[in-house]
Fold this sequence. Notes:
The protein has 109 residues and is mostly beta strands. It folds into 2 domains: 1-34, no CATH class; 49-101, no CATH class. Helix content is 0%, strand content 33%. The chain has a two-stranded antiparallel sheet with strand order 1-2. Strands 3-4 form a two-stranded antiparallel ribbon. A two-stranded antiparallel sheet has the order 5-6. The N and C termini lie far apart (49 Å). The model has no long low-confidence stretch (mean pLDDT 92).
Amino acid sequence: MTRFGDPSTVKCEQKCSNGYFGDSDTGLCVVTCPATYFGDPSINRCVLVCSSNSYADASSGLCVTTCPTNTFGDQLTKLCVSACVAPFFGDIVTIKCVRKCSDGYFGES
Length: 109
């Protein structure tokens, strides 16, 4: 079992305190994960791919359940994207890339 040096408790912990993420490379709890990694608040670890039902937000460096304004959750890449790739459309209701838009909305190709 991996343990991380947590600066808030000054102990080696299995899970970092809230606001910190376990960095497997350094063995430390960090506020900001290294480049190409994202902080996953559901497990308090730095990850390459966010857990199910969350997306990597490059602007914050975090895994989020809802992508920021003007971005959509791409279920294939697990990233928040500004534009979905065909045959998917950015659904402003679900804030996800979808094949079929929410009722009352239409995709434009």
